[in-house]
Amino acid sequence: MSTLFKPAPRVAEPAPVTRGGAVRPSSPPLAVHLVRVTLPEQGDELNGKALCEQLRRFLNAHPGPCCFFLEGTGMVNARIGFANAFKELDREWGARMEVVCAIPLPIPRMMAHTVATMAQASWHIFRTRAEAELHLQRRGYLAAEGSPSPRGPVHASLQPLS
C-alpha cells in the first residue's frame, strides 16, 4: 500500500509592520482643570453620592474637560453603592472627565476597576500616590517637584463632606 503525502497548505506571510505606519492610541487632551479629591475612609453609597454631587457641581460651574485625581490612600472600604455613584456620574459627564486614582488597598481599588471597565472617561488606577503623581507629571499636569505645572491646567481641591 502506498500512502499519499499531502503538502501542508502555504500560508502567506504577513506584511512586516513598520514604525512609521503604526498608529498609537493617543492620550486624551490635557484637561482645563486638575481637581484633587480626597476620598472618604468608608466608601459607602451615601459618601459616594455626596462626593459625586460635589463633582457634578464642579463640572457644571467649570466648562471644558476636567481631570480628577482621586486620592484614596486613606480609604479602607468601598461598597457597590459607592461605585454605582461614580458610574452614574460617568454616564452624565464621562466625555469631559479623565480620572487618575491612588488607591493602595485591594477592595477599594477593585471598585475603581469596576467603574473603569465600563466608563466613558479615561481611568488610570495606581497603588501609590507617587505612581499617580508620576503619571500626572508625564501628562503635564504636575511639575517635577509635584507642584502645578506652569503650562498645565488650573488646580482645585475637593474634600469629602463627611
Structure description:
By secondary structure, this protein is α/β, with parallel strands linked by helices. 33% of the residues lie in helices and 20% in strands. The strands form two sheets. Strands 6-5-3-1-7 form a five-stranded parallel β-sheet, with helices on both faces. Strand 5, helix 3 and strand 6 form a beta-alpha-beta unit. It is globular.
What is the compact description of this entry?
The chain has 162 residues and is of the alpha/beta class.
| Average pLDDT figure | 82
Distance between the amino and carboxyl termini: 87 Å
Spatial ordering of strands, largest sheet: 6-5-3-1-7
Task: Give the low-confidence spans.
Answer: 15-25
Fold blueprint:
Layout (H helix, E strand, L loop, with lengths): L32 E6 L3 E2 L1 H17 L4 E6 L5 E2 L1 H14 L3 E6 L3 H12 L4 E5 L2 H11 L14 E5 L4
Parallel strand pairs: 1-3, 1-7, 2-4, 3-5, 5-6
Name its key features.
162 residues, alpha/beta, five-stranded parallel sheet, two-stranded parallel ribbon, 7 strands, globular
